[in-house]
Amino acid sequence: MGLILWIVIGIVAGYIAAKVTNSHHSLLTNLVVGLIGAFVGGYLAGMLGIRFAGPMIIDTTIVATLGAILVLFFYQKVLK
Q1: Number of other CB atoms surrounding residue 70 within 10 Å
Q2: C-alpha angle 40-45-46 in degrees, rounded to nearest 5
Q3: How many CA atoms, within 13 angstroms, populate the side-chain half-sphere of residue 47?
Q4: Would you say the pTM of this structure is higher than 0.90?
Q5: Dihedral sign of CA atoms 22, 23, 27, 29 in order
Q6: Nearest-10 crossing angle of helices 3-20, 27-48
Q7: How much is the pLDDT for 80?
């Protein structure tokens, strides 16, 4: 995937995660959380042997969003 597509997916994942966890962040923070979430979600999905059969953009967005939700949850519960 191209860099621009990764940035867009990161922003979308971070935005959705912020809405799910009821946290309010800037666009840049959503991007960073989404990109970190993509790494966390991808790592966990690989460790659990989870494979998706749908289009790659949708799969990546789902994994990044779930990872971003975990990152925000960890941040809110443990670090604050």
Answers
A1: 17
A2: 100
A3: 6
A4: no
A5: negative
A6: 90
A7: 64
